[in-house]
């Protein structure tokens, strides 16, 4: 495949990519799901690489009858190659594939790292490949559920200008929504997603543990409607959706929280204090927290850091 075969308008069926053979290097949770989505769009997965037992199982479920081979063999068989390895492993992988001559001119090389744009694929570009960065803004389970969740999922897209529409077309074919991200903005973009998604999991898991210690038999059932509403409100209204004792300036309640956490879950105190301070700052800036109440509240939070177990 060469640049002249790249589509001009992903909205026009006549300009969608030709049916491509697809390979996956790194059969973690992401690669097999994306390859399965591309198969639904008419492309043909032909090879994947993976060495762990979990990788083999994922490939067997999501890409049945697709052989597991070496990364070099994946590139030899596929016109479109998905590089779905951990961020820190990506630069070395690309350099190694380029040095060994595994990359072919005209080959579409797609990585799914949120951190990187296409500069990390420079060795492949010099070898004649067509570099694309397509990062799905979604958490993956490694099961067939992931393929369904790609419908409407936003992808952070970075590509050379002449390949932008080709990249967007591939995202649309997988059921996603392309969102352009400039090369230099990729680290900030990725930090924003990690801040929201990864830390959310930690907060929810910690909240469920504390509810269990409080005697709640079904923490997940209790939190589901509450957190669902909070997330929906936050996405709709941002800081205006803030509620709770910190946003109200209830210093006494916050002090009681800190005391209980210090007794029953001391490891949760630093996180509670850090999030409470950030919430207070945002509530103040948005006019939700009255300045006259903020002083006592911030005093409680500062005192929480000075107590045993709260040293920095």
TrEMBL record:
Gene3D superfamilies: NAD(P)-binding Rossmann-like Domain, ProC-like, C-terminal domain. Residues 153-278 form the DUF2520 domain. It comes from the Bacteria. Pfam families: DUF2520, Rossmann-like. Residues 16-136 form the Putative oxidoreductase/dehydrogenase Rossmann-like domain. Transmembrane segments: none annotated. This is DUF2520 domain-containing protein.
């Amino acid at each position: 495949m060469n640049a002249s075969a790249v589509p001009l308008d992903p909205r026009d069926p006549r300009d969608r990519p030709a049916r491509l053979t697809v390979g996956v290097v790194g059969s973690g949770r992401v690669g097999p799901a994306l390859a399965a989505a591309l198969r639904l769009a008419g492309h043909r997965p032909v090879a994947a690489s993976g060495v762990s037992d979990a990788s083999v199982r994922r490939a067997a479920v999501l890409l049945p009858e697709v052989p597991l081979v070496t990364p070099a063999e994946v590139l030899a068989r596929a016109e479109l190659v998905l590089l779905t390895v951990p961020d820190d492993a990506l630069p070395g992988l690309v350099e190694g594939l380029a040095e060994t001559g595994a990359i072919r001119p005209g080959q579409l090389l797609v990585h799914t790292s949120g951190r990187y744009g296409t500069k990390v694929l420079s060795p492949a570009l010099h070898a004649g490949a067509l570099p694309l960065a397509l990062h799905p803004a979604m958490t993956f389970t490694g099961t067939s559920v992931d393929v369904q969740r790609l419908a409407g999922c936003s992808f952070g897209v970075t590509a050379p200008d002449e390949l932008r529409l080709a990249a967007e077309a591939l995202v649309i074919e997988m059921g996603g929504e392309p969102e352009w991200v400039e090369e230099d903005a990729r680290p900030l973009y990725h930090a924003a997603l990690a801040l929201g998604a990864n830390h959310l999991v930690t907060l929810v898991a910690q909240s469920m543990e504390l509810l269990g210690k409080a005697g709640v038999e079904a923490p997940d059932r209790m939190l589901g409607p509450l957190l669902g509403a909070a997330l929906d409100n936050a996405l709709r209204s941002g800081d205006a959706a803030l509620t709770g004792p910190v946003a109200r300036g209830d210093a006494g309640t916050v002090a009681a929280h800190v005391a209980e956490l210090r007794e029953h879950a001391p490891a949760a105190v630093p996180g509670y204090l850090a999030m409470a301070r950030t919430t207070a700052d945002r509530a103040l800036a948005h006019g939700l927290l009255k300045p006259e109440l903020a002083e006592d509240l911030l005093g409680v939070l500062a005192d929480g850091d000075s107590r045993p177990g709260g040293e920095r």
